[in-house]
Amino acid sequence: PAAEALRPAGGGGSSGSGRDSSLPGREYVAFWRGRPADYGGFADNNFRIDALARVVRGSLGLTHPAWIHFVFEDGTLLSLEPEFLDAWYATADEGATDAPAPTTVEGSQERLMQLLGALRQEMRAFSRGSSSSTSGPQRPPAQTRGGRMWRPPALELQKRVQHCLEQILTSSAMGHDVGVGGSASAALRRFDIVLELEEDGAPVRFDLPGVRRVTDPMEVIGRALVVLGGVRDMEDWEKGALVDACQRQHIEHRRLCLGRHSELTSKCIKAFEAAADAGLLAPALTRCVADGWKPQRQSAQQPDRAPLHVAVVLSTTLERYRKMPEAANLFVDVFLRSKGIYRHTQLTFVDCEGLVLTFQREPDKALAECDALAHFRQALGRAQKQGLDKVIEKWLSGMPKPRDAARGLAGTAPRGPSPAAAPVLLHADEAAGRPLASPALRGPLPPPAAACVGSPAPVFVVFAAAYMADAVRAAALKAGLARDCIARASTGGLVAGPAFVGFLHGEGQLAPAIRATASAQPQPPARSRSAVASATLRLPSARP
User: Fold this and answer.
1) DSSP tag of 490
2) Tens digit of pLDDT for each residue in 222-231?
3) pLDDT for 363-380, tens place per residue?
4) C-alpha pair distances (Å), 97 with each of 102, 150, 261
5) 452-486 exposure pattern, b = at least 16 Cβ within 10 A, e = fewer
6) CA–CA separation, 8 vs 251, rounded Å?
7) How far apart are CA 502 and CA 307, in angstroms?
8) CA angle 197, 297, 421 (to 5 degrees)
9) Vertex 537 angle, CA 344 and 503, to 5°
10) Residue among 484, 344, 348 nearest 423 (CA)
């Protein structure tokens, strides 16, 4: 259904500007490793199929899917739209006439290799069948359901890459005009701006007050193509090809910095899109426009952060879930960053039978699905029946005492943890009816708490369905969390949510956002200690 909603209808539905109003507000280009047209298949480790699978799933599987394009080192272009998920997740009895019969687990890295391998073979067959005089975009692309692979023929590499970029900028990625007849320069442009993500770009800040409240990034910058490196940094000549393509098509090009810490490509896309859905991205971009996209070198910080615990309440059993590729994704989104790991982080699964399994640290190997799922399987013996309140209580007992940032202000230290550094809990629920609030709306804090705004605050995030809201809140209260430290909001679901909350936490903005959300939500009436204790704290079984 999502793919149908995004696909251009009949005549294309173009507006007066030539752009299709049904297209998503953003698309992504990742410069990727590997040379599909020259040598090696997608099973080659150089392609990093594990990361490619996470990027595809993390862009096409979002609440509002974003089309994704990959430009490989040999100038091959791979474009995928949400319909590609239908082929990737097809079961054995869901045969497709334009895709190989599935022989691998749906949604797995192996299935993705199978689909992309068939595209590669078709593209190479077209290349061998083309005459040496073939030039321009007349060589047809290889096609499957929701996917196309194409490489401009016999051009110098930088020009070939530039031509791929111009095709993305000016031609409907999934339309019949990609690589078939006509020139890219003659086509109508599809984007208003190109945003290149890099460390020296204009900083995206979600915690700055005083910005006009807009929620749709398209109101600020129009339709955007977001460009970033995939499992590698973009080469200087690739950046040059991007600038040249933008200049030739008269499209604005800006550089943007998403956060102070380097992150995995898939997590950058998820965080960017989840921030847009939450209404946080548009005000941040408004600030960038007002500042003239001025690059501000942010102070380098160690990728360390306050304790974070992510709990996922499953609608199935641990035994079934541990076989799913999505389980492997969670290990990556929660524990890993670009070229490193996050410490002080835990991940808990609660299944429909009440079994609880907690991972205190990252797996030794988690990038490949098979390694992460093997780690999950080996840990199943540790699962035990336990109430969510006990999980939260145990986590709280291991917290270090809050930093006393106000010490010395009056010669004495205040008693107890400051409100700014006290642990907080978020119930992440897509049916909450409101997104996570902006950390800029946290409101003034009384002294000495105002002096502790920069203090690290531990965060517990529970991904659970709407019907469990009372149980989650009761568990948090029984574990000892304060009422004004508990909030419920949407964060992008399990596809984008863990990466989004992890990104905000790394920036020191998650706890303030939770506090802002809690202060904006009406508080349920206080209940007696006995009423809280007698609440249903063991999470209910999955509903059909």
Assistant:
1) B
2) 999 999 999 8
3) 777 778 888 999 999 999
4) 12, 20, 44
5) bbebbbbbbbbbbbeebbebbbbbbbbbebeeebb
6) 22
7) 11
8) 95
9) 30
10) 484
